[in-house]
Write a structure and sequence with these properties.
Elements (H helix, E strand, L loop, with lengths): L2 H9 L3 E7 L5 E7 L1 E3 L3 E7 L3 H8 L2 E6 L5 E11 L2 H14 L12 E15 L6 E6 L1
Antiparallel strand pairs: 1-2, 1-5, 3-4, 4-7, 5-6, 6-7, 7-8
Length: 138
Amino acid sequence: MTLQEIFDFIKDQKLAVISTVDENSVPESAIVEFGEYGEFNLVIDTFTHSRKYQNLIKNSEAAFVIGWDDDITIQINATTHLLEGEELNQAKESYFAKNPRAKKWDNREEVAYFGFMPKWIRYSDVGMDPWHIEEFEL
């Protein structure tokens, strides 16, 4: 399994669970649509009044779980940042290509976009015997 194969799998997925923590280390998880941009980066949109937005502004660490069909999951620990400028434009282009209905929120002031740069990835296929699990540090 290569990182490229993992990201090819990720590109076929529409939803992810993202987990963040607040300033008191209270966790929050949400199902989100996401996109990919650049080499191995992910992007989501969120409302500025959401818990995940508030958490990501205060703590740039987050975790994703992508996939669950066919006993395959990808776990990702990532560093996040609020997207701006050319990086935002690039990320939104790929995000809207994957999630065209999300474009209707693009011009709302209360919508923000975060980029996620993976630091650690675990690929797990527990439908195999023995299980196939690989970890990558980026």
